[in-house]
Amino acid sequence: MTSPTLVWFRDDLRIADNPALTAAAERGAPIVALFILDEESAGMRPLGAASRWWLHHSVESLRARLAERGVPLVLRRGAAGVVVRAIVRESGASAVFWNRRYASAERAIDSELKSGLRSDGLEVQSFAASLLFEPWTVQTGAGTHYSVFTPFWRACQALPAPRLPLPEPQLLHPGSAGVQRIVASDTLADWNLLPTAPDWAAGLRETWTPGEPAAHDRLREFVATDLPLYDQARDEPSAGATSLLSPRLRWGEISPFSAWHAATGAGGSARFLSELGWREFAWHTLFFFPNLATANLRAEFDNFPWPQPDAQALRAWREGNTGFGIVDAGMRELWHTGHMHNRVRMITASFLVKNLLIDWRIGEQWFWDTLVDADAASNPFNWQWVAGSGADAAPYFRIFNPELQAKKFDPHGLYVQQWAADASPLKIVDLGLTRKAALGAYDVVKRSG
Ligand code: FAD
């Protein structure tokens, strides 16, 4: 068999545990690897700036690693439906393989392509790679999806255990290089994914090494040193006890199967595994509620009387100038590193939504733009969780007090010291008054529910 197999990489920028790539290697024909920057297809959410930075480096790493193994990575920009067909024509591919995606615009593209290419006589195969439990496989007794985490996770655990990760496939095929000569690729730099004027990415460069090898290094290090402490220390932002795997999972540099088995093999932590479970639940929710980033999951929240957003307060929140140490530390950590500790994400999000009375969608968009792990499911899911409008959400009336949260989770002030030592202590709001206003606004929702 000589006509090539096209492997279309998307949110799976890895070689190990990549079922589509492994199946292509097993097919025995030359492989053409493809990555598409799709900013044109209907309904695709434009990537945030920090995501674009990560993507650039992760694609570069994948390209280099595939090249070492004799496989060219073709880069193209455009609507995926058009580009995949063009590459099939140009390369003479007779098979197209990919790992499945679960957001609605992406699913529409993929299913249209699958049926179109199949009716043109191509072999098309898709694989499960990014989730431990694909959304439709987890069902209630009544055959519906879940809207509460605990029974969802119990149901997942009653399913067959997640499969073992696949080893790196043997890729060297003498024909692959020849394909490279006939299929042209864009130059990554021409995609302008990196910020230039100004170049605000110094903090990101300092913090992260995108790419598959660094993801595996971090997983190994986490399991060896941090996992044993995870249950006690995961909520303390200064402890550095969490895995920092989120951007790596978001871009698929490492699979959840690898994370799952590394953790369980090391004696595990039910808590850590259940955090991976929250990621599954966020995707389960997005699959059945595609408008998660724009619409309240609980429709009664459509009646929430959001006032006109206070532009000055919003700016103070974004820049970490609210006068509340833990909020400011979190927002500055986010701006500098593209990441924020989970506890602090909850505190800063709650502050925006409940103390500044600013719509969760505005905060979600800021996180979307600034997080390196900005995830189409986890980000809106968690914002709605904090706002009270989401699946299995925190009750609206449980309003975090950022000062008490700081006392509890940063008792020695180490985190605030690290990120906001020079911030102003001038508070932009009164916690008691704003809490009262938030509960008053919520009464409208309650009355309408
Ligand atoms: P660990 O504690 O080591 O957890 C391991 C993995 O489990 C994470 O890498 C992540 O993939 C998953 N996970 C952990 N907590 C959650 C959670 N609450 N929801 C979904 N998955 C989880 N996570 C994202 O990956 N992308 C986002 O865009 C995102 N936005 C968020 C917005 C808000 C307002 C809040 C409160 C949380 C958000 N989270 C998001 C969830 C969580 O904060 C991050 O996954 C976590 O901080 C990542 O750090 P870690 O990898 O060290 O986590």
From TrEMBL:
PROSITE patterns per the UniProt record, alphabetical: DNA_PHOTOLYASES_1_2 (PS00691), PHR_CRY_ALPHA_BETA (PS51645)
Pfam families attached to this UniProt entry: DNA_photolyase (PF00875), FAD_binding_7 (PF03441)
Cofactor field: FAD
Single Gene Ontology MF annotation: DNA binding
Binding-site residues, FAD: 230, 242-246, 272, 373-375
GO biological process terms held by the UniProt record: nucleobase-containing compound metabolic process; response to light stimulus; response to stress
Top-level division of the source organism's lineage: Bacteria
Free-text cofactor note: Binds 1 FAD per subunit.
Coiled-coil ranges per UniProt: none
InterPro entries: Crypto/Photolyase_FAD-like_sf, Crypto/Photolyase_N_sf, Cryptochr/Photolyase_FAD-bd, Cryptochrome/DNA_photolyase_1, DNA_photolyase_1_CS_C, DNA_photolyase_N, Rossmann-like_a/b/a_fold
Domain Photolyase/cryptochrome alpha/beta: 3-132
Keywords: Chromophore, FAD, Flavoprotein, Lyase
Site (Electron transfer via tryptophanyl radical): 306, 360, 383
Listed PANTHER family: CRYPTOCHROME, CRYPTOCHROME CIRCADIAN CLOCK 5 ISOFORM X1
Family label: Belongs to the DNA photolyase family.
Protein name: Deoxyribodipyrimidine photo-lyase
Organism encoding this protein: Microbacterium mitrae
